[in-house]
Amino acid sequence: MPAKIAMKTPLVEMDGDEMTRILWKWIKEILIEPYVDLKTEYYDLGLPERDRTDDKVTEEAAYAAKKYGVAVKCATITPNAQRVEEYKLKQMWKSPNGTIRRILDGTVFRAPIIVKGITPYVPGWKKPIVLARHAYGDIYNSVEARVNAGESAYLVVCDKEGNELSRRQIKQFSGDGIVQGVHNLDDSVRSFARSCFNYALENKMPLWFGAKDTISKIYDHRFKDIFNELYESEYKERFESAGIYFMYTLIDDIVARIVRSEGGVLWACKNYDGDVMSDMVATAYGSLGMMSSVLVSPEGNYEYEAAHGTVTRHYYKYLNGEETSTNSVATIWAWTGALAKRGELDGIPGLVDFAKRLERAVIDTIESGQMTGDLIPQFRREGVAPEKLESRAFLRAVASRL
Ligand code: NAP
Ligand code: MG
Predict the structure, then answer these.
(1) Domain 119-141+185-285: which topology?
(2) Are both 1-106+298-402 and 119-141+185-285 of the same fold?
């Protein structure tokens, strides 16, 4: 056995919950540790540990990602009322991804992992649609209240000293209702736009961005203006010489154009649009299990993860002692993305090469017909009969090709 690949800087490893926590361990044991002398700084973001530490561990993990520059994260539970009960939580802790995004202030890029034999539900899509989700603000950092009939809600802006500068009535409630306050920051939108322009240039993809500026004449319009200003002042020439373009249009129009397109575009989305549309795009490309995701901060820090959740239904089967056929591809991509980036930053070509070989082995395994159950209904390839493998058998099949 040749010597394992050595690492210099540790990866920030953020463990998670349920079925993905199980896959996490197996991926490391079967696909990484036999080949790489893995160096990580480990943070357990599993829900019991977040509860025990009053969620401090999530913040510490995010600051470690800032310090070291590259993190790999397992899917985690975002608690709701039912989870508070199930895990006997001290309180309903916030979404770890929300906390990490708030600290790193980055942009999430999600790209489908394309293999031969799995045709997208939208037959025209030939190339990946990469979705960039603005990871700050809007409803994810909102303030909400219920309002009773007869009460009023206002939008009040104060100066530094707290003196009222403006007051506008949102609504005088004729019946019981709800109200919400959302915000965003010019700097955050600008760094979002900048990371999208940079990603488009690096990957030679046109960039599309849509918002609802006709209805939201100040809020969404600000997004549009910031993108346009930055494009004109810093990116236009570089885009033109790279043979790509930037297009802004209404979000509805973008959705229609995306469906008609053949893919091969970077689609920049506001936070909520990105949350929803990334699930649509991922599903249309085959499976949530085939969508990779990376958070890129304006300071150049990277956090790699799978786009899907903790696959709860499979976990309960696993707890019952049953085998599951859970797709580990997106979680493997989180590891390969992080290892390759670490290798690139630390000048370890062997690590970059290992990551590429591991991805190749995964793709070859699926293209040869061995895959998890979620992919079977969509797999169509001349002369290849798909075979459904259990979670660990799939990892072993990949290992045998490494
Ligand atoms: P989910 O875990 O993504 O699973 C939804 C369904 O999609 C699964 O039940 C499964 O369908 C299918 N699926 C997703 N990933 C799969 C995979 N790798 N292999 C095979 N099938 C897969 O979403 P959820 O059920 O809405 O959420 C579960 C938990 O995850 C929640 O507590 C939520 O807070 C958390 N979550 C975390 C993240 C994150 O950390 N990034 C993201 C989303 C959700 P079948 O059951 O039909 O097989
Ligand atoms: Mg979503």
Answers:
(1) Isopropylmalate Dehydrogenase (3.40.718)
(2) yes
Q: What is the pLDDT of residue 1?
A: 64
Average pLDDT score over residue span 210-226: 98
> Relative to the CA of 289, which ligand 1 atom is closest?
18
pTM (two decimals) = 0.85
Distance 275 CA to ligand 2 centre (A): 4
92 lines ligand 1 (CB under 6 A): no
- Give the mean model confidence (pLDDT) for residues 224-235: 98
For residues 138-164, average pLDDT? 96
Rounded Cα–Cα distance for residues 45 and 68 (Å): 18
Q: Which atom of ligand 1 is nearest to the CA of 327?
A: 19
Domain 1-106+298-402 adopts which CATH fold?
A: Isopropylmalate Dehydrogenase (3.40.718)
The Å distance, Cα 139 to ligand 2 centre, comes to 13
**Structure token digits, residue 41:** 């700084």
Query: Quick check: 4 and 37 in contact, CB under 8 A?
Result: yes
Question: Is the minimum distance from the CB of 289 to ligand 1 under 6 angstroms?
Answer: yes
In tens, the pLDDT along 169-216 reads: 999 999 999 999 999 999 999 999 999 998 899 889 999 999 999 999
For ligand 1, say whether the CB of 274 is within 6 Å of any of its atoms: no
For 292-295, which contacts have Cβ atoms below 8 Å and span 24 or more sequence positions?
292/110, 292/111, 292/112, 292/113, 292/330, 292/333, 292/334, 292/337, 293/108, 293/109, 293/110, 293/330, 293/334, 294/108, 294/109, 294/337, 295/100, 295/101, 295/104, 295/106, 295/107, 295/108, 295/135
Nearest CA-CA partner of 197 in 137, 247, 272: 247
Cβ(310) – ligand 1 distance below 6 Å: yes
Give residue limits of the domains in the chain: 1-106+298-402, 119-141+185-285, 143-181
Residue 313 Cβ inside 6 Å of ligand 1? The answer reads yes
> Is residue 254 within 8 Å of 267, Cβ to Cβ?
yes
